[in-house]
Design brief:
Belongs to the glutaminase family. InterPro entries: Ankyrin_rpt, Ankyrin_rpt-contain_sf, Beta-lactam/transpept-like, Glutaminase. It catalyses: L-glutamine + H2O = L-glutamate + NH4(+). It comes from Collichthys lucidus (Big head croaker). Its EC number is 3.5.1.2. This protein has about 140 residues and is mainly α. The protein folds into 2 domains: about 35 residues, no CATH class; about 100 residues, Alpha Horseshoe (Serine Threonine Protein Phosphatase 5, Tetratricopeptide repeat), CATH 1.25.40.20. Helix content is about 45%, strand content about 0%. It is built from 7 helices and no strands. The radius of gyration is 24 Å and the shape is elongated.
Length: about 140
């Protein structure tokens, strides 16, 4: 039972294996754990994990300035406004790095939200200012 508790499984709904009723033959009945499923029949924890993985790939592409990878992610349906654990989007990362081509793609083609705030209350334009990326600041303010 302790393995279930460590794995975060609600042990109140889990029955321990027991001998089959009747004959006393010593046959052990086993149970199988089935995770909670989403509407499509997928384990929701696995789906959540994969979505987190996609977010990290998008942020890494923004960090590297890889517009082609961002275009592939966008065309495959990944939400470019998705945020990491600090509330930072791909636009935050691209702004902090000064990747103007990534910023332009995210704003013009992918519909990125320039008003998103991260965990510290910073918008992408504030990130660009903080890192002295003047071209990124102008692009985010709509000057370029």
């Amino acid at each position: 039972m302790s393995l279930f508790v460590v794995a975060g499984i609600d042990t109140g709904r889990v029955q321990q294996p027991r001998l089959t009723a009747g004959s006393g033959s010593g046959v052990l009945g086993l149970m199988a754990f089935s995770p909670e499923l989403d509407a499509c029949g997928n384990p929701w924890r696995a789906v959540h994990f994969c979505q987190g993985y996609q977010i990290m790939n998008v942020l890494l592409a923004a960090l590297k300035g890889d517009v082609q990878a961002l275009r592939r992610y966008f065309l495959s349906g990944v939400d470019v406004n998705a945020v990491d654990y600090d509330g930072r989007s791909a636009l935050h990362v691209a702004a902090a790095e000064g990747h103007t081509e990534v910023i332009r793609f995210l704003l013009e083609n992918a519909g990125a939200n320039r008003a998103l705030k991260d965990r510290w209350g910073s918008s992408p334009v504030q990130e660009a200012r903080r890192h002295n990326k003047e071209a990124a600041v102008q692009l985010l303010q709509g000057v370029m």
